[in-house]
Amino acid sequence: MKLRLGAVAAVLTTTALVPTVADPPAGAEPAPGSPVALTAASTVTVTTYDGTIDDIGLGLLARDRAFEIRSQRPTWTSPIRTTWQSPGGPVVLPAGTQDRWPALNGFVYLAITRATDGKVVRTRRLDLCLNSWNTQRTRPDAPLRSPYPQGCPAHPFTLGSVQGIQRGWLSSVGLDGAALRLPPGTYTVLARIGRPYVDALGIRTADAVRSYRLVVRKETDVGVDRAADGRRTAARPRPDARPTAARAGAPGDAVPDLRSLPAFGMQVSEDSRYLRFSATVWNAGDGPMVVDGFRRGTSDVMDAYQYFIDRDGNQTGYRKVGTMIWHKAPSHNHWHFKDFAKYSLLRADKSEVVVSRKESFCLANTDAVDYTVPGADWQPENTDLHTACGDRGSISLREVLAPGSGDTYQQFRAGQAFRIDNLPNGDYYIAVEANPNRNLVESSTTNNRALRKLRLSGTPGHRKVTYYKVGLVDDHGYGTDEEH
Is 5 helix (H, G, I), strand (E, B) or coil? Predict the structure, then answer.
């Protein structure tokens, strides 16, 4: 179907693609040389329950090879640098392509016209995460699974990310987390890829533009259950009910490396007695941190062992590294490994003044910190507390921190605080230190601690905290309301 492009051109004059190109057949694959193409059925029907829709039936298709984007920030004083992993080598995308981790800025632009009179009723600039929850194969000879992450990172101190679409797969183009208000009716959608991406990626105009009919229907019955597709089946260590009989020994050729990110989400409690904060410890090594616990009879204690895993996922040895305990605090109620990290409040001269009561942790891959490190697991298991930390009846347990992922504890958790009502106003540092007793085996222990500067002010009963930016990262308001 054809769209009256002249009616839309006036709305998007500053960034419009050449609008005189005839629309390619709906759903067509990219022409040779185009790494990706917009695709949609000729007619897409969606339902609305409250006057809004959250899906427009638009996809981004990779044809001849996987389409992969990598983004890195070597330090927090550096802007994010994003590259396309082209067949000829990395291609740097223009400045401004990505100023935040969850998405590529302005990847797709929409203009939606009413079919009855051709009037433009909605326009939308979409920031795009290629790692959509809705990815799917488009032809039978495409690879069975996609290796790419399911979602894009949101942690402000992320250092690297990977986004991608497997060869022969498509990724759904979402509405950037915001539903689109569109009453029932028939519309024409004109979608186009932003000019900076067209130029940098060498996308043919015919692949960068897609027009199609969108039918919005009012519906009262919810009958659709969405599920993500494609999970990697790489070899993973499996838990056992007792310590393995394998020989204890040294790490193999894949070793974890624990590092800390600066504390964030600082708040003073309502009674001004406590400074609350959030913290993340992550694994920058090329091997997983695997800790298994084995219960001592019926007691609420497990003996903890670190297991060494080689690059092929095989166990090469193990070592006793401490204990796990059942932590029954209301905001935990699961098994914790002791001495995984230490939180300290330091004076301006870096001398220690307060140590947090938090001294045990459940390892879970809650955040993608840097998926560009060698050996990063783009689809880690143990991503939430319900599956990673066991229940009261567990007799054995495995906790894993995968390469590239971090374990975040938010400030509302028990122990994520320092007592400050007896401290004077002034400058302080929060120190987050991984593996403080050096029980765990890792490739380096020189990079385990991160500091975050803050200032306490106010009067007794009305204390205030001000924390300073770390390089270019502005994390104010982040990490104060989210779970673990």
Answer: helix
**Residue 304 to residue 301: CA distance in whole angstroms:** 9
| 410 pLDDT tier (thresholds 50, 70, 90) | confident
Query: Helix or strand or coil: residue 180?
Result: strand
Q: What are 312's two structure tokens?
A: 């092929």
482: tokens are 């989210």
DSSP reduced 3-state for 58: coil
The DSSP letter of residue 183 is: -
What would the pLDDT profile of 337-352 be if each residue is shown by its tens digit? 887 899 999 999 999 9
Tokens read off for 75: 């330090």
SS3 260: strand
The token pair at 260 is 């800390």
Q: State the pairing for strand pair 43-48/209-218.
A: parallel
State pTM to two decimals. Answer: 0.80
DSSP string, 330-353: TTT-EEEEETSEEEEEEETTS-EE
Contact 337, 362 (CB under 8 A): yes
Rounded alpha-carbon distances, angstroms, from residue 356 to 228, 267, 425: 39, 15, 19
Exposure letters 268-300 (e unless 16+ CB within 10 A, then b): beeebebbbbbbbbbbbbbbbbbbbbbbeeeee
Nearest to 142 by CA among 204, 208, 85, 61: 61
* Listed residue (345, 299, 292) closest to 325, CA to CA: 299
Cα–Cα distance for residue pair 383/404, rounded to 1 Å? 13
Average pLDDT, the chain: 83
- pLDDT tens digits, 172-219: 998 877 789 999 999 999 999 999 999 999 999 999 999 999 999 987
Give the position of tokens 């539903």.
179
